[in-house]
Structure prediction request, 117 residues.
Amino acid sequence: MIDWDRVVELCSEIGAEGFGEVVDLFLDEVEGVVMRLGTAPDPAKFEDDLHFLKGSAWNLGFAAFGALCQDGERKAVAGRGGEIDIAAILACYGASRQEFMLRLGEFCSAEGRSAAA
Prediction:
């Protein structure tokens, strides 16, 4: 679900404090789009929304979530927005976020975990 190698790489590249800031920004921006998809999905925005979510997810190591977003984005591009399983995407995000937050301390220092929590 989470590409922990990517998490370790990013944390070591930018440091624990910077990593905490990246996590905060990720959660803020991604959750805004995720909430909109859950409460007021707009098929006209699926392509852009899923493209944004895919890139954000893969940057932070949310591999399974990113893959579902990529699949949905491809369907939207092909005019098959009705086939996108928004509920599955949202459920995967929730599970990914939970795993990420629970296990982050195993892969990044406590200082980074404190900033991200």
About this structure: The helical segments are 4-39, 46-60, 63-77, 86-107, 110-116. Residues 4-39 form the longest helix (36 residues).
